[in-house]
User: Fold these one by one.
Assistant:
Number 1:
Amino acid sequence: MKKSILFFSSVSLCLGLMAQKKVLDHTVYDSWKVIGRTNLSKDSRFISYEINPQKGDGVLIVQKNNGDSLLKVERGSNLNFLDNANYATYTVKAYTDSVRIAKLNKVKKEKMPEDTLYMVNLQTLQKEQLPLKSSVQSTAEAPYVFIKKEVVIPKDTADKKSKEKKFQQLVVRNLQTRDSILIDSIGQFTYDKKGRFLLYSIEGDSTKNVFVTDYKKHIPLFTSKTGKISRLSLDESGNQGALLATSDTAKTSVPRLFYFDTADFNSRKFKSSTYKPKEILVTEGEKIPKGYGLSPNALSFSKEGNRLHFSYAELPKKEEKDTLLAEEKFLLDLWSTSDTLNMPQQIANKNQLMNPSFNAVFFTKENRWMPVTDMRYGQINFAPDEAKAKYALSIDTEPYLKEMNWEYPYPRDLHLVDLKSGKRELISQGEMLGYPTMLNPDGNFVVYFNKNKKAWYAFNTNTRKEVEISTGIEVPLFDESNDRPELPDSYGYAGFSNDMSHILIYDKYDLWSLDLLGKTAPVCLTKGWGRKHNTRLRLINLKDDNYKNLVDTNEKILLSSFNDQTKENGFYELIPNGQIEKLIEGPYQFALRGKAENGKKILFTRENFNEFNDLWITDRTFKNPLKISHANPQMSDYKWGSVELMKWHDFNGDEIEGLLYKPENYDPNKKYPVIVYFYETHTEDLYKYHQPQPSWSIIIPPMFTSDDYVVFMPDIKYKTGYPGESCYNAVVSGANALIERGIADPAKMGLQGQSWGGYQIAYLVTRTNMFACASPGAPVSNMTSAYSGIRTGSGLVRMFQYEKGQSRIGEDLWSAPMRYIENSPVFYAPQVNTPLLIRHDDADEAVPFEQGIEFFMALKRCGKKAWMLNYNNEPHNLRSWPARMDWTIRMHQFFDYYLKDKPMPRWMKEGITIKEKGKDQKYDLAQ
C-alpha cells in the first residue's frame, strides 16, 4: 500500500514538473509572432493577414468573414484583392535560410533566391504562378491585372557579334474575359481606378513613345527618337491624363507638359493617327522667374480632377569641367549668425535646398495654369471641394525660421491665394496657431485654433471677417494635461458637417459642433456624457474615401472611448438625439485594423498585458465579435505575470499613479527585486500587450516579470524649471511606497530608462543612493552644453527643447543659468554612488553622443563604477537585430548581478579591449 502511494506521488510530481511553466528568455524571440499586413475586401467577404515571426518565414492566411479558412500560404505576403475580391495576388518569399546561405556564399544579386508571384481565383482557389522577376499591379475595382515581366532573348550562337537582349513586357489580362494584350519594351505605365484606360510608354533602342489605350485602340500621344519620358498621370476616373517628356537626352534639357481629355476619343471626327494632346506651355519669365522651367519630378491630378499639379525648378546649367585634383581642393562650411537656417539644418536638408522645386497648377476645366508656391511661399493647402473653392491657403513660416531654434512651436502667417488671379492676401500674421489650420471643404472659411487665446476661430473668405466660434464653451478646449512651458494645443477636430457649415471639434472628453459663421451657439453633440463619465470619446470615420472629412450628424456615429479612471477602452455609438450607447468596453486596448467599403464588417484588435492583439471581426453592433487569428498559442507555456494600477502620494502631497507589473503567482509575503522604468506617463497603457522581443532601448516588462522581477512604471507630474526634482518626487516617493507596502526588497531596486528617461535617471543617482544599480540610455548629462547641441537628424539646435519643450526649463541659458546647472547631473558626479550601465550610440541623431561621454568621463574621473555601451553606427534607438539582442542580454545580466546576486558576466569584470572587439562578447559568467 505504501509502495502504491509512493508510486502515485512520484507520478504526480513528474506530471507537475512537466506542466510547470517556462521562464521567458532570449531564445523565445524567433518563435513570437506578430500580425503583419491585414486586408479586408471591399465587400467584406474575405480577410487576409500575415502571421510573421520577428525573424524567419511567416504565413499568409485568407479567411471568410465567418472565420472559415480559405487559404494558407507558407512564406506568403502582400496579398491584394482584385476584381471586387474575385481574385487576389500574393508573393511567396524565398526561404530565409536559403537567402542567408546565398549571402554567406557571396552569390551575385541576379542569382540570389527569388520570391515568386501568384494569382488565385478566390471562387475556385485555382492558383497560377506568374513569371519570375515580374511585378503585379491592379486596383480592387478594376477587372484588369497588369503583369510586368522581363523577357530575355538569348544571343545567336552562330553570330559572334550577337548579344543577349533584355526588355520589359507588360501583360494586361482581363480577369473576366481572360483576354490578354502584350506590350513589349514597356517603360512606365499607369491606369485609373476602374481600369478604363491604360497610359504607357514604350522605350526601345531607337524611339520613345507614349500611348493611351482602352484595350481596343492604342492612341499615340508622343514620339521621339531620343529624349526621356519623365512622368505619366491619369485621374482617378480615367477622364483625363498628362505626361512629361523631353525630345533630347541632354542633361540641360527641359521637359514638355502635355494634357489630354479621354472624351476626345469618342468624337466622330477623332482620328488616332492625327490626334495630338494639348501642350501646356510653361516658359521662363512669364509667370515664373527667368532661369526656371518645368521640373520632371512631379505630375498628378487632384482628387476630383479639376487640377493637374506639376512643378517648376531652376533650369539645369552646364557645369564647367573640373580641372583640379583631389589634393588641390578643400571643403568649407561657413556658419553665420545671419543665416536663416543653421549650417547643420542646411546639411540635413541638402537635397531639398540644392534642387528646390515649386508647385504649379493647370486648371483642367478652365484651360489655364498658374504657379502657387515659390521661393518665399512654400506650403499650400487646397480645399477638398474643387468646384466650389475660390481660394487656397498658404501657410508661411519663413519669417520665423531663425527663431525655430528656440521657439516651439513657432508663429506663422496665413495668406489667401486667389485661384483666379494668383493674388496673395495676408489674413493672419505672427499668430501661434495650433492644429488644425485649414480651409473648410468648400473653401469659404479658414479654420484654426489660436493658442494664445485658447479658442477656435473662423475667417470668412467672402466677408474677410474673423469670428471666434467657440464662444460660450465653458470647458477647456486646450490640452489640460500639458505641463511643458509651451502654449497648449487643441484637442483636435473630427470633421465637418455634411453642408460644410460647421466644424466638429473635441474637448478632453466630448464632441462639439461649431457654427463657422459664429451666429449660433456651440452644441455639445455628446451632451457632456464623456466628461460626466471621465471617458474620452473620439469619432471613427467608417465612410470609404471620405477625403472631405464630412460627418452626417443625422446618422449614428461610431466613437472610440478611453476611461481616465479605469483606463479601459471600447466603442460607443452616438445616436442623433445625443444619446450615447455602449457597444463594447472592457479591460483592453482596442484598435481598428480595417473596414469594408459596404460598412458591414469591421476588423479590429484587442489586447491587454495578458492577451496578444489578435484580429477580431464584427459588424457595426459589436454584439458577436469573432476572433479570427491565434498567432501566439505558445504564450500559455510561459510564466507571464499581471499588471495593476497603483496610486500613492508624492512628496508634495499630490496623488500619483503608476503601473505595477507583478510576477506570475506573486507572493504577498515575499519582497521582490524591482526595476523602475519611466519616461513621462504610462498609465494610459495599463492594458497594453508587450511583445517579447530584443529591445530597441527599454525593458520589456514580461521578460522581467517572467523572471520573478517586479516592474514599476510611475507617472511623473512636472513643474517648469524643475524637471529633475519633479522626477525625484514621483519616482522616489513611488519606490518608498513599494517598500512600505512590502513589495520591494529595499536593497534590490534598479532604474532603467532611455533618452528623456535616461536623463532623469542620471539626475536621480546624484540625489539618492536608494537604488542598487541604474541603466540610463542616451542621457543628457549637461544641459549647459546640450542646450546648444545639434539634433543631427534634423539639423535643429536643441535650444527649443529647454526653453519650451520636454526639458521644461522654461527660460534661456543666460536668464536662468543656475536652473541649467542644477538640473545637469555632470556637475554632481561626485555624489553618485550607484553603479551605472550607460548606453549611448555614436550615430545618435537626437541626443549628442558627447552627452554620454561627458557623464561617463565625469564618473571615471570621480572614481565611480560605470560601464558605457556604444553600438557603432547605431541611432538613438537601436535598429539592427544583432545590436538589439546584445543590448538586451547585457542589460538583463547587469540587473541580475546587482538585483539577484547572480555571478558577474566577464564583460563587466574584464571589459572588452579593442583586440577582443567583435570576437569575444564575454556573456559567460565569471568564476
Note: The first helix runs from residue 2 to 19.
Number 2:
Amino acid sequence: MSQQIDERTRPAGGIGSNPQCAYNQEDVRRYHLANLEIENDRHHIAEAQVQIKELEHREAVELFQKQVGLLQKRLVNDPKFFHQVFINEGTSAIAWEFQQEELGAQFTHTLWNLLLKNDDMSTLLLRFLWNIPLKFKRKFIRAIDRHLQDRYPMFKGLSEGWPGANNIPPYIRPPNERAKDFDLVNQGYIGYMGLGYSFREVELLVWLEVLRDKQCDDRPCEIGMPVMDGGRNEGGCPVKIHIPEMIHLMGEGKFRQAFELIKESNPLPNVTGRVCPQEIQCQGVCTHNERPIEIGQLEWYLPQSEKLLNPDANFSIKDFINPWAKADRPPIAVVGSGPAGLINAYLLSKEGYPVTVFEAFHELGGVLRYGIPEFRLPNALIDDVVKKITQLGGKFVTNFIVGKTATLDALKRAGFWKIFIGTGAGLPRFMNVPGEHLLGILSANEFLTRVNLMKAHEAGYETPLPDVKDKQVIVIGGGNTAMDAARTVRRLGGKVTIVYRRTRAEMPVRVEELHHALEEGIELKVLRAPKEFIGDKTHFVTYTNLDVMELGEPDASGRRRPLATGKVEKMPVDLVIMALGNASNPIVKDAEPQLKTSKWGTIEVRADNSQETTIDGVYTGGDANRGGSTAIKAAGDGQAAAREIAGKAPFSPREIQSLVAHAERYTKLGQASQKIVEKIVLAEDIVEMVVYAPLIAKSARAGQFVRVLGWDKGELIPLTLADWDKERGTIDLVIQGLGSSSLKINQMEVGDAFAGIAGPLGLASQLHRYNNGETVVFTAGGVGLPPVYPIMREHLRMGNHVTLIAGFRNRELMFWNEADQRVGLLQSEFPELLDVIYTTNDGSFGTEGFVTGPLESMLKEMQNGQGRAIGEVVTIGPPVMMQAVSDLTKSYQVKTVASLNSIMVDATGMCGACMVPVMQDGKLVRKHACIDGPELDAHVIDWPKFLPRFLQFSKQERENRIRHGFV
C-alpha cells in the first residue's frame, strides 16, 4: 500500500526533475525501495537461519563441512590439484573414445595436439597410451595413419603390419645429396627437424617407435638369447645397457630419466649407437623379427636430444673433486683412446681414479677418428667424450707410443698402479699377389687415415691424396671398412666398384652400410678376387685380372669357401684400396716378452671372465685382444676391465699420494710443449733443430726415427734421430728442405712448438762386436749423415772399427766435418777406430765422385787380401745411392743394411704407407719400415719395385709447393 501511495503522489516530471528541489529525489526513491525489499525478505532470512541452526549439527552436514575445509586447504597448498581433477575427467573421456570402433578425425587431431603441448596432460596421455592393451594401440596408430598423414607423411601406411612389420624409420638424407659431401647420412630422428618439424614432434616420432615395444620378460635385447650348448648368449648388448628399462621410461615420456639410465652403463651412447652392428646384437635378437625396434637410434637420440635442449647438460658435474688433487686412489694408465680406452678411462675417472690416457696419434679417438668417416660418425661426438673424461679429471698425452716412448714397466715405475691396453688393430693386411707393389695400391687403413685424420681432401692441408676424381677405383673386401673406403671415394668423385670373393649374402658388412653404398651409386662385383695387378711404364696400376670364383663347402667361419673356377676377367683400374682387415700392431707385444699373445698377434687374457693379461696389473680389450671386431664390443671390454681394475689398492694413503705425484709429473712431461730450443743452419736448405721432447730423449736408441707434425694442417713426416740428450730432455733433428712440409718446418724458429712429435719409432740398430779387426763401413749420402752418426758412435763405443764414407754434391753442402763438429769430435775421441772419407760429386772436397768409389776400392782390397776385412756395410741416404751400394756389395757377398724410414718410402710418413717390397723364400712380400725396420737387408729389397714409390705423390707435392710460394 505504501508503495502505491508513493507512486500516486510523485510529481509528473519525476523525482529530481524539479530544478528547485534541494536534493536528488531519484536517490531518495532508490533508497526507500531498497528498505522496503529488506523488510519483505527479513522474515525469509530468519526462517533460513532457523533451518541452518537445526541442520548444522547433523552427521551428514558436519561431514560436508569438513570436506569443504579440506578442499580449501588443498587448494592453498597444492593449486595443481584441481587441474589434475580436470585431467582425470579428460582421461576418462579419452578412455571412452577408445571404446568406440574407430577413433574419429576430430578426436585424433585433438588428442595429437594435446600430446604436442608437452605439459602434465600430455605426459599423462603418453602414459595412458603406453599402458593400454595392444589392440587399443593399434587403433591409435590406425587413427594417426588415416587422419594425420597429410600433416605427417611418415604416418601414411604405418598401421599396415604395425607393430611387428612397420615403423617410422630415422631420417636418411637422399643419396644424390649425401654422396657429394661428408655430412651425416643417417641423421636419426633428430634429422626430421631439418624438414621443419619441431623438437616435440620429433620426440613423439621417437615415442611412436618406443610404443612398438613388447617389454619382453626375458630381455633378449639386453642379455642375448641362450644357445643350446650353454655357451655365451647370442646377441644382446656388450655393455649391458638396461634396454627394457630405457624403453619403458621413454614410453612414459621420461626421456631425461632414460638418458640418465643409459649413461650409467655406457658413456658413449652417441658414438656406439651410430656405429655398432645392432642387427647382430640387441636388434638381432629382438622379438620383432621382421622390423626390430630401432634400439641403436634410440640410444643415440637420447644424448643428442639432451644436447639440443641443454648444450652443457652432459658436462655438468656436481660436487666434483679432481682425483689427482684428492689422491686417495692410485693412478691408472690407459693405452689407446679408441672405444675401449675411452670407456675404461671414463668409468675409472668417475670412480675417483687419477687416469692418464696415452695416445699414439696427435688426435684422440683412435679408430673412431681415423677409421670411421664423418658421414657415419661426426668427430664432434668423440670430442664430447674426451671433454667428459677431462671434466672428471682424466688427462691425455698424445704422440705417445707405448712400447717405444715407454714400456709397460716404465709406466709402472712412473707411478701407474694398473694399465689398460686398448691399442686396437692398426696393421693392414694385403693379399701378396703379383703386382701388389705397384703405385696406386694402398690399404683402406692408409686411405681413410689420410682423409679422416689428416683431412687430405680439404684445401689448406698438406697430406697428399691419390687422384680419385673421375678415376676407376676398386675396393677389395666386404666389411664395414670396405664400405667406408668406397663411400669416401664416391664423395671425392671416384667411380667405385667393390670386389668381393663371395656373394652378397656372405658379406660381413652391416646391412645398412651396404644399402647406403648401393644407393649412392657404388657398384658391387661379387665372386671375384684379384689374381694379379698390371701396371704401365710409370709403375702405376692400370688393370687387374680377377679370378672368377664359386662357393664350395663352409670354412671355419661357417661361410662357404670361395674357390677359383679357372676363369679370369680383366678389369681396368686406376686405384686399388685393400680393405682386408687389420692385424694387431706388434709394437707393444714386441716390447714386452712376458706378454702372451696368440698366433695372430692378439694379446691374450688369463681367463674367459677376465681382461687381465699374463702380466700382473695389465689389462686389455677391444681389437688388441679380439683382433678386428666392433666398437661396441671394444667398449664392453673396456667396461669389464674397469670393473676389474677398480679393486682395493694394497697401499697406505701416503704411498698412494706418492704414486699420484709421480704419475702426475710423468704426465706433465708427456704433455710438455715440444719447442725448438736451438736452431743451426748447417748448409743451404739444411737445418739442425734441438727440440724439447723429454720422454723421447729418454727412450731413444741409435737407428730410430720420429714422426713429426709441424703444424695443425701439416703432414706426418718421419725424421731420423741425429742425436738426443737425456739430461736436457732434447732430441736433434736434421731437416733438408725438399718438399713443402720440410721447407715450412725449416722456417720455424727458436721458441716455436711442433704440433706433435711421436716416437722413437722403428727397431734400434742391431749392433755386433767384431773381434778380428773388421771394419763397419757407413756410406752416408747428404742428409744420410745425421742418421748414420748415432749408429757409428755406438759401434765405436763397442770397440768396433768404423769407416765413414760421407758423400755430398759439393763442398757448400757439407756439414759436421770441422774439428769442433760432430764427426770431427768423434775422430778426436776415437782416433784409432774411425776412418773418414769424404766424397763430392764435383770434386770440390775429398774424393771426386760417389760413395761407391771408395767402397769399391775397399771391397777389391779385401777380396785381394789387402786392407781391412769388412764386417758389414750400412747405407743411408738417397734411395738410388742405397741401391748402388747394395748392388755393389752383393757380388762381394758382404752383409749390407739399408736404413729406411718411411720418408724414404713414399715421402709422406703416413701410417700404412711405409711398404718395402722384399723377396723372401722366393716370394715377394711387404715389410713395414716402422715395424720391421728401418734397417732391412739391402740384398733382399726389390729395388726396381721400391724406387718408384718416391714418385707416387710428386704431382701433389708440386701443387703444395706452388701453394706455399716455394716454386
Note: The CA atoms of residues 238 and 587 lie 28 Å apart.
Number 3:
Amino acid sequence: MIKNKDLAANEDLSEDGVTWKAMTSVPELNKAINEVMAAEDDLSLSDDLPAKRGAGPAPRGASQDLSLDDEPPPSRGPAPKGKASPSIDEMMAELDLDQDSKPKGGDAGPPPGDDAPPAPRGAGGEDLQVGEIPDLPPLWKTYRKPILAFVGVMALVLLGVFTHLSRFGIFFIPGILAELTREPPPPPPEKPPPPPAKVVSPEELANLINEGSYEAFRSIFATIESAGPTLPDNMLALAKARGMATLAYGSTAFPLADLTKAVEALNTLDLGKAMGGNAAAANVEILKSRSALEILTGAHESAATQLAALVESRSDDKELALLLGLARAKGGDAKGALEALDKALVADSRYALAIHAIGDIVAAQGDANLEDAAFWYAKALRAQPAHSRSGVAAAALYEKLHRTGARRRILFETAENVSRGLPPAERPLVLYETAKAFDRVGILRQAGRFAEEAARLDPTNANYIALAGVAMALSGRGAQSVAALDAQLQRTPNDLETVLARARAHMKMEEVAKAFLDLETAAKQAPRDHRPSLWEARFDLLLGKLADARTALEKAARLADTDVVPKVELGRLELNLGDVDAALTQAKAAVTADPNSARALALLGDCLSRRAELSEAIETYRKAFEIDDEILEARVGYANTLRDIAMRQGAPRESQDLAASVPLYLAALNDQPDNPQIIFEYGRALELEGRLQNALALYREASMLDEKDVRPHLRMVQAFIEQSPPALDEAASSLKRAQSIELSSGRPSSEVRFWEARLALLTDRVHDAVSALRTATEFEPKNAVFHYWMGRALERNNSLYEAITYYEKAVSLNSRYAEAHRALGWASVERHKFDQSRVHFEAFRAAAPEDKTIWNDIGESYVRQNKDNEALGAFEKVLEHLPQDVKALVQVGNILSRRGKEEDATKYYRRAVKADESNGEATCQLGIALARGKVSKEAEGLLKRCLKSADAPEDMKDSAQSILDTAGIN
C-alpha cells in the first residue's frame, strides 16, 4: 500500500503479504493515507519496530516499512500544539463507524495485552486480515426503526379494516360507545303463579282406562299429577287407575306401594266435594280402588262379596263386573268369574280388559282349551290394538299349539303398537321375535322395521343387531347394513349370528366373494353348527351351482339335530331337479323328525302330488294349513293338486275342483304379486278353464318382472303347444325369445332344450328333438320328465330298445310316473311281452286311478294274445265309466263280430260313430258291417268317408274300397 512513500491509488497488499493487488473497495482510505504520508515529519516511528515479514526495503526517513497491521509507536517527544494529525488506525476506526457511532465489527475493547492494539475485526466479530474488506451490517440493524414503524402502521390499517367490517364498527369504537350508552335491561317478569288445580276430564280418563295399555295408565298418572293430585275427583281417578294398572301389568311395572298410598289417601277424602257432591257415586269409585288392592293382596273374597252386591244394581258399570270377575277367578270360581265378565261385555262388547280376563280363565282350564284361550286373547288385541299384553299371551299359546301362521300374524299385530302397549324392557324381545318369525319363512321384508327397532331399543344385543343388519340389506341399504354389522363384530368378534348376517348382506349386495369368506369364518367358529352350510347351499342356488348346493345341504342335514330345514331344502332341490323319489325320502324324514313343520308337510304334499297320489297329497296339505295357513308352498301345492284332479277327470272346465283352486291362486297372488311361480301355476289353471288369452296375459306380465327370465316365454310355448290344435308358429316365436335370453345370459338352460324338443316332435324333426333332449338330460340327469320324453323321441325314431332305457330311468326317479309306466307297457306289447305289459298298466292304474282309459290298453294286450274273453271284460270296464269311449266301443264290436254276433257288433259300431263321427276306424267298421249283403246308401256313405279319413287304418280302407268296387260304386 505504501510504496516509496507514495500510496498507490488502487493497490493493496495481497493476502500472502508479498504481492500487490488492486484496491477498489475504499477509495476514501487511499486519500486519508496519502494525507498522513504528507505529514510524515510530524510522526515519530520507533527504530526498534520489527520489520514485517516479507516487506521490501525501508523507505527514506524510516527504519522499517509501516504496514496497516502495525500500530505506530508512541511519540518520543510531546505532541505538537494544535490539532494533532490522526493516525491511520483512528481514520480506519472513523470510517468503520455506523450511524450510531458503533464499530461495524462490534464494540472495541481494551488491548488484549501489553500496549499492542487488537487486530481489526469484521462485522461478525472475526479477525480481519490485511487487505480484507469488512462485511456490512444486516439491513435489519441499519433500518430497523423505519421497518418497525411501517409494520405498526400497516397493522393499524388492517385492524381498522377488519373491525370496520364487524358489527362493532371501526376499532370497536361504535360498539363500545353503544354499549356505554345502552339502557339497562328491564327487570325479569315475575314468575307467574302456578295454574289452579283442575279436575281431569272424566271422559278422557275413561277412554284411557278402557284402552288398558301401559302408556295409557302412565298418561293418566302424569295428567292427574299435572292437573292437581289433591282434588277429590282426581284422587278417586288416580286410585282406580293405579288399581287397574297393577292388576293388568303386575307390581313390577306399577308398584303395589303406589296403589296402597293412593287408596289410603282416599280416607281423607271429603265426599261432599267429590263428583259434584254425589257421595254414593264417590263410594262406588272408592270400592273399585279398594277391591283392586284386596284382589292383589289376597283379600279377594271380601272384594267379591262387596262387588257382587253392587253389580246387580249397577249392571251398566263394566268396571264393577270386571273386578268381580277377577276376584272370583282369584278364588277359583271360574264359572262365577265368567258370568261376571260376561256382564262386563254386555255393557261394552269391546272391553279389552274383560276379554283378556276371559282368556286367562279359559287358559287355566287345561291344554284342551288353549285354542279357545288364544282366540280370546286375539279378540282382546283386536278390540284395543294397543292392548299388546293380549297379543303376547296369544302368541305364546299359538306357539305351544304349533300354529306357526297364527303366531306370526298375532305377533305382527302386537308389534305394531308395542311402543304403547308394553313396558320398555319388554318391547325389544317382542319386536325381535316378530321379525324372526317372518325371516324363518323368507319374508323378512314385511317385518324388517321391527328388527331395526329392536336393535335401536337394545343396541347391546348381538342377535338384534344381526337381524336388523339383514333387514337393512334386504331393503336396499347394504352399505349401512355392513357398517352396523362390522361395528358389532368389533365388539363381539366371534358372534356367529352377526357373521352369518354379514354374509347375507354381502350376498344381497352381490359381493359374492365376501359372502363366502364370511361363511368360511362362521364354519371355523362353529364347526358343529349346520347354519353356515345351509347358507352356503342357499347362496349356491342363487348362483345356479346346483351340485355344490346339494353337497352343502347334505352336510347341513348331517349336522342339524332338531332343525329339519336342511332336509326340507334338500328335498325341495331334488324335487325341482325331477328326482321325485329322492325328494320323497327327504320329505318323509323331515316330517318324522318334526311332524309340526309346515314346510316339511308342504314338501311331502308336493312329492305325493308329483307321484299322482292326489288324495294323500290333499290330506297332507290340509295338515300343513292347520300349522301355517299362509305358507306359500302349501297354498300353491294344494291349488295345483285340485287343478290336477280336475285335469284327470277328463272335463276340467266343468270340474268343481278346478273352480276351488282359483281362489287359492288369487289369494297367493295377493300376498306375493311378483312371484312368477304363482303366476305360472295360475295361468295353467286358466288354460284348463279355456281362458287361454288370460293365461298368456299373465305370462307376459311375468316376463316384464324379469327380462332375463326364460320361464314366462317357455310357459307361453307350452300353452301354444298344448292347445287344440297346436299354434306352432306362436310357439316357435315364444321359443325364439327364450333362446335369445338364454344366449345373452351365457348360461345354458335345460328347460329351453326340453321345449325345443317338444316343438321339434310336433313338426316331425325327430332328430332335432333327440339331440335337444340328450342335452337336457345331461344338464339334469335326475329329471324324470326329461327322461320320459327322451324315450318318446327315441321311440318315434324307431329306437325302441333305447327308448325303454329312458322310460325305465324315468320310473326309477319317480316310481309312480304314470305315463312312463304306460309307455313301458306298450313297449312290452310291441315285444309280445304281454304279461309284463300288464304289470306296467297296473302300475299306471295305481298312479292314475281316475284314468279309466287304461283298461283299453289292458284289453288291447289281451287282444294281441287272442284272449277275447279277458279283452272283452277290460273294454266293458271302460264303458262302465266312459260309455262314449270310441276305442272301447269299436273293440267290443270287433270281438262280437269275431264271435259272429254281427247285429250286436253293428250296434257298438253305430254308438262309436255317434260318439265321434270323425273317427276313421269307427266309420270304416260301421260301413263294412252295414255293407254285408247289399250296400245301402248309408253303407256307401260311410265307406266313402272311410276312404277320406286320415286316421282310418289302411287295411280297413282297402276293405272299404274292395266292397265299393265289388258293388260297382265309384
Note: The two ends are 162 Å apart (CA to CA).
